[in-house]
Amino acid sequence: MSSFFTLASPDSKKVSIPITLIIFSEYSSWFKSQTTQEKNWLESNNYTGKGFCLLPNQDGSISRVIYGIPDNEDFFIAGDLALQLPSGNYIIDESSSKKALSTPLTHLNFLISWGLSCYQFAPYKTNKTPNDNPLPILVASSQNLIDEAVSYIDSIALVRDLVNTPASDLMPQDISKQVDQLAKEFDAHSQHIIGDDLLTQNYPTIHAVGRASVHEPRLINLTWGNEKAPKVTLVGKGVCFDSGGLDLKPTSAMRLMKKDMGGAAHVLGLARLIMSQNLPVRLRVLIPAVENAVSANAFRPGDVLTTRKGITVEIDNTDAEGRLVLCDALTEADSESPDIIIDFATLTGACRVALGTELPGFFTQHIDVANNLSKSGNSVHDPVWQLPLHAPYQDMLKSDIADTLNSAPTGFGGAITAALYLQLFVSKETHWVHFDVMAWNNRKLPCRPIGGEAFGIRATFEYLNQRFR
């Protein structure tokens, strides 16, 4: 992603085309101070301060870009400008309105959103046409600014890439390879408990969900950072494809199930951001990676499984498998008494019904954590929404023959009952946050193409940064 940026130099500043940022509300007053030639050009192009307009030099070349923005705090401030401008070098015009450049985050967010808008997932395209018009390059004032922007862009792009990759090329062993590469890049340590070793080392529900696949289930473990630093543990649901198991999904519900490892993608993207920003924590990442397939040895509705914690679970629905792989990983995460456990999962359609596809819901029993996480999300324009761990709904998970059901027979409150199930595997005193995310853009938005997407990782990183930096 760094190829979209270049460091400012005396020469680059001279040849770069300035982008003048104007807040919508300031356009009228700004317009009055422009030359007659510029006023006439803007009016003849029906430009009213929204979007962009190219101003020409006398020779017809581009003099500068006028770019109207609603405010200076939007994280996606650059929109899709990088996809709309001609190739060449561009630089933010320091003579932009004072209000437009009044926050130091404007430059950083402009770089990040510029890079994110350039994201493409095209490894499977065979009819690629030669790029005769390369994407424009943004000139930045410092290498530190570029490095920070790239750390965010690469982390979000990692989430998108993993979620977009077809299940044929992203099974548990492939997630293992991704983790090994990340460990090598950041001098971390990775371990993998694979196949029947899950039974030997007491991860029975991960094994039960994944045993029907030809791709062996596994628990992936990455550790990084000073062992004496505060412990932050991330847990990500890594169901590489979810057929629903014996409770088979209908065709329409199965179509996008390559994204059911979106939780794993999120924690890897967040881990990359934490490590690249050198957050002073002891990071641990746990990913239970499986394929929920159909075979003669698939687990069945009505089966009773004994979890790593010893809690027995009657299977109400084999399509509620994500919480089964997560519960063993959460038990392991909790055994170290970390300062905080944060899990991400594409867990329930009920959360999407409640909040839509673009607003991630989260659950926690700790009010301070919830409030600070919400504030952090708002401050970086990555909103997250707390949903209730409504204890009376625990009755919906009662089993006649085991300690709990894995899924409530009723569809009401499905995101809550799923979170209540997971809560059984985390100590009350442990700071724990559970994210239920879509991991997918259903519609095209500025800087956000249709396909895999990261939700809530910037909010979470900002929370961790404020708490532990």
List keywords for this structure.
Leucine Aminopeptidase, subunit E, domain 1, single chain, 469 residues, six-stranded mixed beta sheet, 2 domains, alpha/beta, Aminopeptidase, nine-stranded mixed beta sheet, 16 helices
The portion of residues forming beta strands comes to: 15-25%
CATH architecture descriptor of the largest domain:
3-Layer(aba) Sandwich
CATH topology group of the largest domain: Aminopeptidase
CATH class of the largest domain: Alpha Beta
- By DSSP, the count of extended strands is 20
Structure, explained:
- The protein has helices at about 10-15, 25-30, 35-45, 80-85, 105-115, 145-165, 170-185, 195-200, 205-210, 250-255, 260-275, 320-335, 350-355, 365-380, 415-425, 455-469, and strands at about 5, 15-25, 50-55, 60-70, 90, 135-140, 190-195, 220-225, 230-235, 240, 280-290, 305, 310-315, 340-345, 360-365, 385, 405, 430-435, 440, 450.
- With about 475 residues, it is α/β, with parallel strands linked by helices.
- The chain has 2 domains: about 1-140, Leucine Aminopeptidase, subunit E, domain 1, CATH 3.40.220; about 155-469, Aminopeptidase, CATH 3.40.630.10.
- A hairpin with a 5-residue loop joins β12 (about 305) and β13.
- It is elongated.
- It starts with a strand and ends with a helix.
- About 45% of the residues are buried.
- The model has no long low-confidence stretch (mean pLDDT about 95).
